[in-house]
Design goal:
heterodimer; A: mainly alpha; B: mainly alpha; 0% strand
Chain lengths: 127, 190
């Protein structure tokens, strides 16, 4: 690539692209995938612990792939890719957790009889 | 404007497209999370999902993504034959993945657990099939790209095109991490 000044975005060729980086990414993803699988099928973890482990391993693997395969975070300033990514992440979190929150709340409020509400409170909220 | 700056803009533009695609998938994930328990008296994920089978799909797609990355390295080193061979492996792994997924869908539908059976299955089929459709588009793109490289070599627009394809392919594997974790592992918990 030329030494031409590029005011908007970083170099076209992503830096630090090496076989070693891809192999590290691939092997870590294999290990993380197998770990998540084991966490889901093993009987030694409680239900909540299994969910926490699966979620944590998914987030770690996502970060590894973004870093090693999609080269996020290796661009030069100004980091437009990162800025767009963070915007997307904000929207995604609002959509996903907002939906779950609203739908659970609706579920709670739409019950027919007081008896049902009492049953729900005893069973779901652990009161 | 120089070629390189224009290629950079294309890459950034494509990145923005991928991020909006993430938002599309986020809405489908949210639907699945809400609908997960709505089985309408039918089978739930724990009864329907075959985790070892899905594990094979996951490893195929991960390996395909990795091999596609190796093709990018071969491109930088200017090795045309290696690029084509690696893209061929990428294609085969992706095609086997689609085949396994279609077989999985067919099996579910044949057992009476099609997309119309329950809210849970509607959201499941919509989410997983949207990803599968992306993979199919990727396979088509990959075939055209490989044909172009065979005909025209690694010059011209090829580096840019292959860069965009590899971004798309890696992105689809990132989405699959969450389908594997949220739909199959979490959805399959007893």
């Amino acid at each position: 690539m030329s030494d031409h000044k590029q005011p908007l975005v970083s170099q076209f060729e992503p830096p630090h692209v090496s076989v070693r980086s891809y192999v590290i990414g691939f092997v870590s993803c294999l290990v993380l995938t197998i770990a998540a699988y084991v966490a889901a099928v093993s009987d030694s973890l409680s239900h909540d612990a299994a969910i926490a482990a699966i979620a944590a391993l998914a987030v770690v693997q996502c970060v590894v792939q973004l870093r090693r395969f999609l080269h996020l975070g290796s661009e030069f300033k100004p980091r437009w890719k990162l800025a767009v990514f963070i915007t997307m992440l904000t929207i995604v979190l609002i959509v996903v957790f907002g939906s779950l929150w609203i739908m659970n709340n609706l579920n709670y409020r739409m019950m027919q009889s007081p008896a049902e509400v009492n049953k729900y409170i005893t069973e779901q909220d652990g009161l | 404007m120089s070629n390189s700056a224009s290629a950079n803009r294309t890459v950034l533009g494509f990145w923005i497209y991928l991020m909006t695609d993430c938002v599309l998938f986020a809405t489908l994930f949210a639907t699945f999370a809400v609908m997960r328990g709505s089985t309408n008296g039918g089978a739930d994920g724990a009864q329907l999902f075959d985790l070892p089978y899905v594990m094979v799909e996951t490893l195929l797609l991960l390996t395909s993504s990795f091999v596609c990355g190796l093709a990018m390295i071969a491109l930088q080193r200017g090795k045309k034959d290696t690029v084509i061979q690696l893209l061929f492996i990428t294609f085969v792994l992706g095609a086997v993945f689609v085949g396994l997924e279609v077989n999985e869908f067919h099996k579910l539908a044949a057992e009476g657990n099609g997309w119309a059976r329950s809210g849970f299955l509607s959201s499941y089929f919509t989410l997983v099939a949207t990803h599968g459709l992306h993979i199919c588009v990727g396979l088509l793109w990959l075939s055209v790209l490989a044909w172009q490289i065979m005909r025209k070599g690694l010059g011209g627009n090829t580096p840019k095109r292959l860069t965009l394809f590899s971004m798309f392919w890696h992105f689809l594997d990132v989405i699959w991490i969450f389908i594997f974790s949220v739909v199959y592992l979490w959805g399959g918990l007893v």
